[in-house]
Design a protein that fits this description.
Distance between the termini: 25 Å
Helix content: over 70%
Order of helices and strands: HHHHH
Number of helices: 5
Strand content: under 5%
Amino acid sequence: MTYARFTVAYGCLLVAALLPIICAAIAKFASAGPGGRRDSFDNNNPRDWFARQTGWKARANHAQANTFEALPFFFAAVIIAHQLQASQIRLDVFAFVFVVLRIAYIIMYIADMANTRSVIWFLALLVNIGILFLGYR
């Protein structure tokens, strides 16, 4: 009987799934203040609050949206690579590199470093494509 293992690549799926939540938290909690502060996060109308944000708070929200957009391809690539019995070490390394690149992407997005952010986005896409094809022989 074969038992499934919780691999590093599967752990990277969990980390990647948490990244958009972290992006939102950065914008929300950085603006939290005593009860009546004007820029305090409005949990009754979160989308309206995010729509009014500018600067790094708005960029954190945009990073959140883009990070959500990247998840389906990453999840599918990792699962397909597992199903095709890709080299586990390579898959773990590629998945880890993808997550590191996505973290760097978020940092560059919030820091308003658009050109660097775009390069990192493209590198993460290439890594994700690599993950998808790891299992093909």
